[in-house]
Amino acid sequence: MTALTMVEAIRDAMARAMEEDPDVVVLGEDVGHDGGVFRATEGLVERFGEERVIDTPLSEALLAGLAVGLGAQRMRPVVEFQFDGFLYPAIDQLVNHAGRLRNRTRGRLSCPIVIRAPYGGGIRAPEHHSESPETFYAHMPGIRTVIPSTPRRAYGLMLAAIRDPDPVVFLEPKRLYRAVREEVPDDGEALPLDQCFKVRDGTDVTLVGWGASLARILEAADLLAGEGIEAGVIDVATLKPLDAGTILDAVRRSGRCVIAHEAPRSYGPAAEIAALLAGEGLFSLLAPVERVTGFDVPVPLPRLEDHYLPDAERIAAAARRLMGYR
Amino acid sequence: MQQVASFAVERTAYLNADGTCAERLPAFAGDRDELVRLYRSMVLTRTFDAKAVALQRTGRLGTFASSLGQEAVTVGIGAAMRPEDVLVPSFREQGAQILRGVTLEEIFAYWGGDERGSDFAGPREDFPICVPVGTQAAHAAGVALAFRLRREPRVAVCVMGDGATSKGDVYEAMNAAGVWRLPLVFVVNNNEWAISVPRSKQTAAKTLAQKAIAAGFEGEQVDGNDVIAVRAVMERALAMARDERQPRLIEALTYRLSDHTTADDARRYRDDKEVSERWKAEPVGRLRGFLVARDWWSKGDEEKLLADCAREVDAAAEAYLARTGQPATAMIDHVFAELPAAMEGQRAAIAALGARAGGEGR
């Protein structure tokens, strides 16, 4: 078994799902012989043919609506958008149709579709290529928003997303696409959606994040450990529906919580988690909830990007502040 | 300089406004029963629309979009499609829906604010009404792509209004239909008004049909107040889509005799004189004139039909009004295939609200 990058793991999951189910088709711009701009679909057209790996016209508004039509016909389209910043034209279709077709027909029609997009910053990309729009999708009823943070979780969550009977927006942290390699058995085993993953134990403070921020959080946990602060780490993975129980359990033990994300601060997902802790978690808290986030600005071009993205030092500093509360 | 491409847009029409005939008719028009079936469907649609407006005006139905004056378009579509085809409508296609087996009660229920109205017992794969203008075009492309990939001899029919043709997503769907040669027929119900914006302010294009040409397939016009013509061009287009994978756009020229919806007052922006002038070309009287001229329709037939349609519509309206409400929890039970654990608390809250109100929604 060879160790895989995240982008390879995602490709393996798509290939596995296509093997299992003839209704799974992959669509998107340049997903065919080019293999996708990040090569996530490399080799799929050679293996499954042009009727299952379909190069589309350059039509982002079409792509999501096309998936709705295919899904209503019980196919399982996996649609690639090239970048987070080009996913916005799909919002109309996602919020008006994909997220509500099942409900508005009382289950007669449904949308078993996966919308994939590389997301987030940190690769010195051009404008509109470093967005963190997860809040938009997490706010839409009827849609799951899933973000992997390791190759293995990417494989298992992608399989789960494709097999799920409802629409999933699957945001792939492009900074992690080739950052690490990990053994990923191609065993067809999905990981559960709607569940957070506890990735590190520690009862002094709980660090919560997803996607590329999770790597920064783990670096922060190492820094803190060197100072004698034991930080627990939670990978949220499915932003919505949110697994409140895992987060609450961890914070009940630690009494302190830092949430980190690249998305802008106001109304970002950290606000939702902070509200959860201020409600059901209130009497566990020893300290205020800290958010380490992007700012309420358009994501800067690469020269200022490092000041925008949460890094290990900012996360660790937030945790240290919380340790001042007893 | 050389000419590298040239195009033509044709228009099909058979019946004159007075019911006389301009051209040699298609074969089906030689069959009285077929024409009476079309006539009956148009009268039923008009009766339904009138009842729906009346129910809205008396507070027993929500906002409603009448198809008054456009019955030939919607009935022509429904009559030409096969049961296994899929209709992807906008929100003025009740005539086609009724012919495809959507019940009058279901349509009342939808406009009455009840999602169950879109859970058609009949055409299970047809799309529900689409309110965001033009967004359904991409769905039709997806449905047609599924047919193509599975090699099924079925056609998706996407209906939209004249205003929808100004939208970028409609063009994206047309472009895909052209490049993939999808079994897809677009029908533009050009009723000349997009709420208050007339066709002349919608686009500088000479026809809406020609918008297909840029997408690489044929567009044509049809007299949308001539149900024989609509059905004939629809049958031709469906056969081309089914057998030869040729998408097509049909622009049906008609006129919106009603307000946009019951929430609209068209007198704010258009002259009553224009409307009364256009009543002279309306489709129901036109086909009736043709039938009467052939001695295929009598006063007695007319009276009986009107009474039958009124009875059918009234019965459906009564059944709709007598429907029991949905439980409050119906709002959450169909959002996902299975209720996510994270939503159980919200479901309990909704159930409590429902119980407070006595169990059922209205």
TrEMBL record, chain A:
It comes from the Bacteria. Residues 4-179 form the Transketolase-like pyrimidine-binding domain. Its cofactor is thiamine diphosphate. SUPFAM superfamilies: Thiamin diphosphate-binding fold (THDP-binding), TK C-terminal domain-like. Keywords: Oxidoreductase, Thiamine pyrophosphate. The keyword Transit peptide does not apply. One of its GO terms (molecular function) is oxidoreductase activity. Pfam families: Transket_pyr (PF02779), Transketolase_C (PF02780). This is Alpha-ketoacid dehydrogenase subunit beta.
UniProtKB/TrEMBL annotation, chain B:
InterPro entries: Alpha-ketoacid_DH_E1_comp, DH_E1, PdhA/BkdA, THDP-binding. Its EC number is 1.2.4.1. One of its GO terms (biological process) is branched-chain amino acid catabolic process. The keyword Amino-acid biosynthesis does not apply. The pyruvate dehydrogenase complex catalyzes the overall conversion of pyruvate to acetyl-CoA and CO(2). It contains multiple copies of three enzymatic components: pyruvate dehydrogenase (E1), dihydrolipoamide acetyltransferase (E2) and lipoamide dehydrogenase (E3). This is Pyruvate dehydrogenase E1 component subunit alpha. Its cofactor is thiamine diphosphate.
